[in-house]
Amino acid sequence: MSADVRSFFGRPIIIGGGIAGLMTALHLAPEPVLLLSRTLLGADTSSTWAQGGLAASLGNDDDPALHLADTLAAGDGLCDRDMACRILQAAPDAIEGLARFGVPFDRTPNGSLHLGLEAAHSRRRIIHAHGDGSGREIMRALIAAVRSTPSIVVVEGVEARRLAVKDNTIRGVWASCSIGPVFLGSRRVVLGTGGIGGLFLDTTNPSGSCGQGLALAARAGAVLSDLEFIQFHPTALDGPDRPMTLISEAVRGEGAVLIDETGQSFLQRVQGAELAPRDVLARAVWNHLANGHRVFLDARQRPGPEFARQFPTIASACRGAGINPARDLIPIRPAQHYHMGGVAVDGSGRTSVKGLWACGEVASTGLHGANRLASNSLTEAVVCARWVAESVAATPARRTKPAFGGDYPAPDPIPVRPFLSCALGIVRDGEGLKAVIRALLPLAESKDAASDPAAVALMIAIAALSREESRGAHYRTDFPDPAPEARRSEITLEAALGAARELAQSPALERAT
Question: What is the DSSP string of 199-267?
Fold first, then answer.
């Protein structure tokens, strides 16, 4: 960071260089904003890696009510209906807004948008750009727009480590850069930091996406919601590479099928088969693998020879693994893919901490419920970024004093990954969750590099232990049925640490009695 940071005091600070952060910054223009990115813009974000595109009701046979019905069904009783309705009604206009920024969406010969089909959608409503390169193309257009907007100062290679808070009000951001720790004073901060894939051994997300936005909010005292709901994509390329290559749901939407090593389907009892909701299909694949089988995606007939044209990114990854999808079976297994939970926000993206907003995967708006409907996530980020920007712009700037100190270690998720991968995977149970909570507590209470990732993991584990039912992406073998009443969960770091300490002491108390 070469510029004098004092010149930035008072500006809104956006943390995160993915679609949520870039769109928020663009919607705030011409108000001056500071955008912090841990890497070069677009270099290590889930947004860039996104294959599936955006869901919006743009077809002649579609409307927002149908889109809402599919979203609510996939969300398994936990969606915020009003918020979901509002987001999905705004989706078509948001697509047009992206096109105005120069996103080259795929179109039919007559010039209309080409609409794809994905699991649990009742209509073709997925909009892509360059086939499976949707995230890359959207990011390319938005990065160009941001870099050409004079009011947006982009600072790359800077990582936010803590939020400065006094009286439940944001005062600024402690960050780390090449010259050491730096304090950026502001009463308006937006989190757009993405998800938690880096907390797992097997994920389709960048390894740097390790829940740091959740840690920032939690350390600031914010309320987090629905953390136990983690989506595992059923079809990741089964190979040695980490992170794992995603085989988009759109491939199955174009007719590819799942088979095992015998060449037979194993989805006879799965309603919807290949296009079942992700939680249902991921469990079916997991169970088949657990029973000693291998699982493959068979795209030889459909899309067949068209595979490389329709899915160039996936085809390239398969070639790197020695696989030609037009001739060969693609070995697959589930991997962590998306986090439905996040920082609890209202309809304007405001959190429970004054002056702190959240947008995108780091936020919990209530759209996704217990199981995200495919391709609703980019739509949510694009739509909600406008509302967040409007709320930030309507909040008066206030001066804040410089602060000193604030040298916090870079987060290291490596010690945490085995714990989450074991106890918080596709299938869970109470004893496993209790064991991982006891193991995570000392890491979360430490002051070393694993502390923030462990704190996030601990909150997820406490939320999962508290939910004594199976619903959507949260499946417990000791509570295999849904509870009579669906309820969203809320948690704070203080409450999670208290529950974990009580659990850690309970064995000694039991022995004493």
Answer: GSSSBSS-TT-SSHHHHHHHHTT--EE-TT-EEEEEEEE-SS-SSPPB--HHHHHTT-EEEETTS----
Q: Nearest 10 degrees: CA dihedral of 266, 268, 272, 276?
A: -30
Residue 331: its H or E element: strand 330-339
| Residue the block writes with tokens 């996936």 | 314
278 is catalytic: yes
Strand, coil or helix: what is 37?
strand
The CATH code of domain 5-195+340-393 reads 3.50.50.60
Name residues whose C-beta falls within 8 Å of residue 287's C-beta, 6 or more positions apart in sequence.
none
Which DSSP state fits 340? S
Which CATH number fits the domain 233-336, given the four candidates 3.90.700.10, 3.30.530.20, 3.40.50.300, 2.60.40.10?
3.90.700.10
pLDDT of amino acid 2 = 42
Q: Is the pLDDT of residue 9 over 60?
A: yes
Task: Give the DSSP letter string of 383-443.
Answer: HHHHHHHHHHHTSPP-----------PPP--TTTHHHHHHHSSSSB-HHHHHHHHHHHHHH
Report, as an integer, the average pLDDT of 390-400: 92
Domain boundaries, given as residue ranges, for the chain: 5-195+340-393, 233-336, 408-512
In this predicted model, what pLDDT tens digit does every residue of 20-68 receive, in sequence order?
999 999 999 999 999 999 999 988 899 999 888 999 999 999 999 999 9
Catalytic residue of the set 11, 278, 372, 471:
278
Q: Are 454 and 416 in contact, with CB atoms under 8 Å apart?
A: yes
Give the CA count within 13 Å in the CB-facing half-sphere of 202: 20
CATH among 1.20.58.100, 3.80.30.20, 3.40.50.970, 3.40.50.1370 for 408-512: 1.20.58.100
